[in-house]
Amino acid sequence: MKELQIKVQNNNDGSANISIHGMVDAYSYGQLEQAFNNLINQGIYNFVVDLSNVDYLSSAGAGIFIGTLGIVQENKGSIKLVDPRPKVRETFNLLGLSQFFDITGNK
Q: pTM of this prediction?
């Protein structure tokens, strides 16, 4: 099993770039939740999330994006999802979440 790796670049303007590598599943989603929470606790509410190296996203993983989206929108922020692989995009589509997120690339 490929370990989840999360790289965060704080842009010092209230935004952060997050690059995720591996699988976001029932075992690893807590790491992603912690990364978002750490940034939110710093007052960062705008995220660009690179999904190009995410092999799999479970419904638990998608739940982290949903919960985080609610928090950032309450604070006038946003989440932009970039370059999801087809299986990851399909997860967002099947769960009806594509309409709530700005998803670009790899259509």
A: 0.93
Helix H, strand E, coil C: the string for the chain is: CCCCEEEEEECCCCEEEEEEEEEECCCCHHHHHHHHHHHHHCCCCEEEEEEEEEEEECHHHHHHHHHHHHHHHHCCCEEEEECCCHHHHHHHHHCCCCCCCEEECCC
Q: Phi first, then psi: what are they for 86, rounded to 5°?
A: -55, -40
Give the confidence band of 105 by pLDDT, cuts at 50, 70, 90. confident
- d(CA 13, CA 65) in angstroms, rounded, equals 21
